[in-house]
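Renewal narrative, Specific Aim 1. Our central claim is that a sequence can be written position by position from structural information alone. The example that follows is taken directly from our test logs and has not been curated for this report. It begins with the structure tokens describing the chain, in the order in which they were read.
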């Protein structure tokens, strides 16, 4: 029975040393396959005497079983090793910072709104919001715009539907963010310092006008707030927002029913070779309307104009986004064109802060 011991040593040794499943399969075929060595030996049983067969038969079977279980055990071991190797080579560090995927991006309007909020938060202004469907009272009357006032036409207002026979003045899509001034002072009183970003609507459409656009209102009311404070706040804002130290603003006398005196504010710029540069040159670009809040507006919001005064301003968010990031056509802002968004949009992790920077 020496042959058996040799076979056993040969195959068990081979199995233990096998490097992969292919080698293991070759060993299996050579040992216990149909034409394998063990099978061939078993064929020899027929030529044996019954006595010999009684001894040899169980010995062959035992060898076959032993080889088979060694194969199974080794196979499982190899699979474990292969898995371990994959786990070693394919690991990922889940604590790594995400890579920005520029599929969808943050819209310039959202980004610039966040920039504005960050700058004004630093100046002590809170954020307030109001409804986009507004009553005629908040959008006009409380802001000292009487029904027959020409400003109602100038605003190209969208009016909401009223049923026939319902003679109340219709609601409107707010034409500016100024109604939030009234709503905020009514609810929270004064003194106050707020900005109110949001959507506004006017029936107008060309390269620099869309029927829906974005504004933010600023409002600062206290006992001794003056036009000088307005000037400082706006200059400080523009310096931070555009990232230009020698920004120059021009306050031009103007008229709004809800401020007295009123001023429109232009920013110094140049248009060399069709390229806009801020803070230099001989051109001026209008960026906002402002003034000292009209006593009637304070009274309409329940604030005593004998005791309190302050300034307000309204700035176009889309307009300053176009200026800052060199975006030529306002209409493209609202086309939802992914190619445009990839070009002008911002990565989700580009969160503007005063310490981290508020510009790209
Ligand atoms: N509401 C004005 C507009 O939409 C802007 C403005 C706001 C002007 C506050 C003065 C004070 O044009």
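The sequence written for that structure reads:
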């Amino acid at each position: 029975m020496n042959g058996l011991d040799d076979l056993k040593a040969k195959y068990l040794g081979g199995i233990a040393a096998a490097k992969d499943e292919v080698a293991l399969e070759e060993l299996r075929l050579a040992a216990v396959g149909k034409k394998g060595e063990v099978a061939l030996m078993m064929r020899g049983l027929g030529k044996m005497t019954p006595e010999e067969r009684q001894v040899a038969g169980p010995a062959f079977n035992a060898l076959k079983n032993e080889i088979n279980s060694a194969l199974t055990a080794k196979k499982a071991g190899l699979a474990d090793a292969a898995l371990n190797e994959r786990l070693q080579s394919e690991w990922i560090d889940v604590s790594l910072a995400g890579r920005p995927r520029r599929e969808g991006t943050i819209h310039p309007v959202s980004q610039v709104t966040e920039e504005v909020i960050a700058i004004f938060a630093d100046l002590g202004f809170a954020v307030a919001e109001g409804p986009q469907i507004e009553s005629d009272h908040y959008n006009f009357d409380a802001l000292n715009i009487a029904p027959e006032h020409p400003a109602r036409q100038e605003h190209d207002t969208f009016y909401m539907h009223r049923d026939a026979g319902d003679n109340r003045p219709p609601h409107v899509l707010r034409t500016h963010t100024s109604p939030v001034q009234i709503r905020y002072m009514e609810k929270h009183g004064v003194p106050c310092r707020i900005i109110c970003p949001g959507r506004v609507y006017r029936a107008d459409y060309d390269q620099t006008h869309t029927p829906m656009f974005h504004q933010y209102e600023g409002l600062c009311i206290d006992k001794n707030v003056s036009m000088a404070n307005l000037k400082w706040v706006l200059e400080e804002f523009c310096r931070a927002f555009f990232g230009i130290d020698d920004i120059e603003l021009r306050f031009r006398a103007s008229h709004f029913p809800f401020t007295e005196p009123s001023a429109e504010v232009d920013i110094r710029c140049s248009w060399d070779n069709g390229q806009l540069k801020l803070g230099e040159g001989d051109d001026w670009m209008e960026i906002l309307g402002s003034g000292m809040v009209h006593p009637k507006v304070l009274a309409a919001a329940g604030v005593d104009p004998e005791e309190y005064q302050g300034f307000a301003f309204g700035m176009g968010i889309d307009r300053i986004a176009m200026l800052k990031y060199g975006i030529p056509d306002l209409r493209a802002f609202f086309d939802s064109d992914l190619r445009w968004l990839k070009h002008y949009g911002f990565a989700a992790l580009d969160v503007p802060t005063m310490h981290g920077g508020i510009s790209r």
